[in-house]
Each structure stands twice: as structure tokens, then as C-alpha cells.
Design goal:
The complex is a heterodimer of chains A (94) and B (134). Chain A has 94 residues and is mainly β. Chain A has one helix and nine strands. Chain A has one domain. Chain B has two domains: 42 residues, no CATH class; 88 residues, no CATH class. Chains A and B meet through strand 2, strand 3, strand 5, strand 6 and strand 7 of A and strand 1, strand 2, helix 1, helix 3 and helix 4 of B.
Chain lengths: 94, 134
């Protein structure tokens, strides 16, 4: 279930649990772009692969492969299109 | 993000993968409430959802176009800086850029790749024409 949360600094996010260990979060940056951030909690022992990014599919048709953002990021280094850390992997969708 | 179901495939290190399905029900209202945008604006594959005859691309396509323009400008600046004094390196710069563009497009879904390549080509033409005028 998608829920809106307001962070202490006033920023709003939209989140939903994918499992007991991983949460999907929509966040908006200052330049009004929107990212999906997948965050794992301490119960999840595995760490995200920083070289193989998530692949999203809507209704089995529309595929967004975050791995495509790696080259875009390389070509446009002054703007963030994705980041990948041990417990958080994030890509721009709008 | 329009649709009923979002499937997410996540990769873990090393060599592990997990898949999750989540309903998109309620997401539209939540996005509207949090960001003031409609779900149809937050789409993951705008090119594939835009009508072929659309004369006015959706806002997200225009945002990507600006990024493409910036990328082509960067290439053009590096090309100009070397091409006059060293045409051979200039030619190599073009080849390298073409290779990067093709590699980037190959990672996109076909519809997006086609739009991306067309946009890059158009921006290159525009910049070349601006250069000639100056």
C-alpha cells in the first residue's frame, strides 16, 4: 500500500514495502525530478549489487532498466541519474 | 506511472536476485498528494506511450531532450577544440562519441532507443548549423 510520509525537513515521500526487508520509495529532488529508491533494512543480510541495477516492469509490458542509466550518467556527469549503495539503489524515472 | 502492477527485479551481490510485485493501486493519489503530479506524468517509458502522431511531446521527453542537448554540446566543444589543429583526433572524437551513443541506445527499450538516436541526430544538426552561421 502506497503511503505519503512527511520527513522532519518537510520533504514528502511516497513509499510501500516490497517485503519485510525492502521498501520502495518515490522521492523528488530539488530540480523536480522523481526517483525510485529501493532501500533495504538491517534484517536483509544481502547487499545490493552496484553493477547490476534493478529492472522495473509495469503490467509485463513497459520495461525500465536502470542499467541504461549507467551510460547516461557517464555521458552527463553533472547530473545524477542513479546511485547504488549497499542498502540503497535509486534511479530517476521522471 | 500508469498500470496495475509493478514488477521489480533486484540484484544482490554476489550473484543473487529477487523479484517483487506490488500493486500500483493508490499510487496515483499518493503521488498527487506528495508531489502534485499525476501518475500519468510519472511514467517509465514515455516514448512508448506517446502516440506516434503526437505533435507535442510530454514534459518528461522535453526534459530528456535538454539533457541530450547538453551531452551533444559537450561533445561538440571537445570536437571543436581538437578538430581544427588535428583532424585525425577530431575524427576519432566523432567515432568515440558515436560509439557511446550507440552503447547508450542499446541499453534502452527499442522505442526509447529510436527516439534517443533521433534526438541526438537532430541536436547534432542544430549545433552544426549554429556553428556554420557563426
Amino acid at each position: 500500500m502506497w503511503q505519503v510520509h512527511t520527513l522532519p525537513d518537510g520533504e514528502k515521500i511516497v513509499s510501500s514495502a516490497l517485503s519485510e526487508r525492502i521498501t520502495a520509495i518515490f522521492q523528488r529532488t530539488r530540480d523536480a525530478r522523481i526517483f525510485i529508491n529501493l532501500v533495504s533494512n538491517e534484517v536483509e543480510l544481502r547487499l545490493f549489487d552496484k553493477r547490476r541495477l534493478p529492472i522495473l516492469t509495469i503490467d509485463g509490458e513497459h520495461v525500465t532498466d536502470f542499467n541504461g542509466l549507467i551510460d547516461i550518467q557517464r555521458n552527463l556527469p553533472n547530473q545524477i541519474f542513479y546511485f547504488a549503495e549497499d542498502r540503497s539503489v535509486c534511479g530517476v524515472i521522471w | 506511472m500508469t498500470g496495475n502492477n509493478l514488477h521489480i527485479r533486484v540484484f544482490f551481490n554476489p550473484f543473487a536476485m529477487a523479484e517483487y510485485n506490488i500493486s500500483l493501486t493508490g499510487l496515483a493519489d499518493a503521488l498527487q498528494q506528495a508531489f502534485g503530479v499525476t501518475a500519468s506524468q510519472v511514467i517509465t517509458s514515455p516514448a512508448s506511450e506517446a502516440p506516434a502522431s503526437s505533435l507535442s511531446p510530454p514534459p518528461n521527453v522535453r526534459i530528456e531532450r535538454a539533457a541530450i542537448r547538453s551531452m551533444v554540446e559537450d561533445f561538440w566543444r571537445s570536437f571543436i577544440s581538437v578538430a581544427v589543429t588535428n583532424p585525425q583526433i577530431g575524427a576519432q572524437t566523432i567515432q568515440n562519441f558515436d560509439g557511446r551513443i550507440q552503447a547508450t541506445a542499446s541499453l534502452m527499450v527499442p522505442e526509447n532507443a529510436k527516439l534517443f538516436l533521433e534526438a541526438v541526430e537532430e541536436e547534432r544538426d542544430l549545433l552544426f548549423n549554429e556553428y556554420k552561421r557563426n
